[in-house]
Design a protein that fits this description.
Blueprint lengths: L1 H20 L4 H15 L4 H16 L4
Amino acid sequence: MALSISVVLLLTVITVILIRRSGLNVWHALVCVLLGFYLAGSSIAPSISTFTDNVAGMLSGIDF
């Protein structure tokens, strides 16, 4: 659960920065949000979740 909240916050911050600085249109961001909702309800959702968990596990194992 904590990982999901962290990812949501990180992606929200990135989206806000892209809207303000890089000229990402608000409509484009909304389309991306809708795509995320549809992906979450699709049969590929478990694969995406496993992939993000594996990437998070790799990143947590890196010593800086």
